[in-house]
Design brief:
It is a single chain. By secondary structure, this protein is an alpha/beta fold. The chain contains 12 helices and 13 strands. It has a 7-stranded mixed sheet with strand order 2-8-7-6-5-3-4, with helices on both faces. Strands 9-10-13-12 form a 4-stranded antiparallel sheet. The structure holds glutamine. Glutamine (GLN) binds next to loops. The site of glutamine has 5 residues, from loops. Keywords: Aminotransferase, Pyridoxal phosphate, Transferase. This is Aminotransferase class I/classII large domain-containing protein. Its cofactor is pyridoxal 5'-phosphate.
């Protein structure tokens, strides 16, 4: 393996899902729904395939999808953007992140992340030859430590990567926090990369896009995807929204990473994004009911549960059960209890952090969530 990837192992999500299958455990680890996406979106994909929309798509996106993304963005943020010049369709948000980093960050540039962070950020920054500075968000509220953030800035700092709602903690960045980060970006001429894939799963407060804050659109790459909002994580349709001077970098990287994204799924994604607002309301209602089952269940089992405002994840302190650390706890949970969770220490630069915490997902049908809670009540 090349040096730039030497330190990375098989992703924790892959490891845990394999163990779930091997031990017949209930998988509350990797974040993918065990129910299907909406019929009208699947029908649109089948239609597109039958209509012969099967050759390479335009590199930066099928025109209807670029337009649908721009319309959705305007509804969400009030910002009117040019779908031809400011939207790039990618193979999932993971590719959008890679394209933004590889297209806009030079080797030696420093990028600030908030730990715990989604695993692809670190690996992609490493591939780009960037340096990583991680600022740890600590329980119970995972607030941004502003002083530490300011102290982490150097002449080499080029960007701050923000994920809100935040995987794995469920934290949502408050307007105050985003305002401070925005003024830091403006004062130090930094870019903001924002991963907002859980924006439609915001339960306790309204989601705020960094790009919508004064002075920020021009320095922000906003990234999102279809997977979480439409329960179609396997379709891998994502996008990056940025002003033309940043879109140029994103598109140059995208052209040589994947060139274009799966054509029929892009047509179906365009249909999906035209869903009525009631679709989003129902999605939220369904997820709030699931969240209630899992959170109340985990409390009854005896975990200390940290409040999650968004995403389909919740983080708990496992130490009442006396295992050595998060990895040991998760192994015990799989083998002795038959439930899979995700150890969080892999989401920190310093692996000594996060050892008290594990993440559960509630993107599963209610019976599955109830059975997992039952197993834990009986065997933990
Ligand atoms: N985003 C998903 C999660 O956090 C996992 C995606 C993946 O497996 N790479 O669970």
């Amino acid at each position: 393996v090349a040096k730039r990837l030497e330190k990375f192992k098989t992703t924790i999500f892959t490891q845990m899902s394999q163990l779930a299958i091997k031990h017949g455990a209930i998988n509350l680890g990797q974040g993918f729904p065990n129910f299907d996406g909406p019929e009208f979106v699947k029908a649109a994909a089948i239609q597109a395939i039958n209509d012969g929309k099967n050759q390479y798509a335009r590199g930066y996106g099928v025109p209807d999808l670029n337009s649908a993304i721009a319309e959705r963005f305007e509804k969400d943020t009030g910002l009117s953007i040019n779908p031809e010049k400011e939207v790039t369709v990618t193979s999932g948000c993971t590719e959008a992140i890679a394209a933004a980093i590889l297209g806009l960050i030079n080797p030696g540039d420093e990028v600030i992340l908030f730990a715990p962070f989604y695993d692809s950020y670190e690996a992609t920054l490493s591939m780009a030859g960037a340096k990583i500075k991680a600022i740890t968000l600590k329980p119970p509220d995972f607030a941004v430590p502003i002083k530490e953030l300011k102290a982490a800035l150097t002449k080499q700092t080029r960007a701050i990567l923000i994920n809100t709602p935040h995987n794995p903690t469920g934290k949502m960045f408050s307007r105050e926090e985003l305002n401070v980060i925005a003024s830091i970006c403006i004062e130090n001429d930094l870019l903001a990369f924002t991963d907002e894939v859980y924006d439609k799963l915001a339960f306790e407060m309204d989601h705020i896009s960094m790009a919508s804050l004064p002075g920020m659109y021009d320095r922000t790459v906003t990234m999102n995807s279809l997977g979480k909002t439409f329960s179609l994580t396997g379709w891998k349709i994502g996008w990056a929204i940025a002003p033309p001077h940043l879109t140029w970098g994103v598109r140059q990287a995208h052209s040589f990473l994947t060139f274009a994204t799966c054509t029929p799924m892009q047509w179906a994604a365009a249909a999906a994004l035209k869903a009525p607002e009631s679709y989003y309301e129902e999605l939220k209602r369904d997820y709030m009911a699931k969240k209630e089952i899992l959170v109340e269940g985990l409390k009854a089992v005896g975990f200390k549960v940290f409040p999650s405002s968004g995403t389909y994840f919740v983080v708990v302190d496992h130490t009442p059960f006396g295992r050595k650390d998060d990895v040991d706890f998760c192994e015990y949970l799989i083998k002795q209890v038959g439930v899979v969770a995700i150890p969080t220490s892999v989401f920190y630069l310093n692996p000594e952090e996060g050892k008290n915490l594990v993440r559960f997902t509630f993107c599963k049908d209610e019976d599955t969530l109830k059975s997992a809670v039952e197993r834990m009540k009986q065997k933990l």
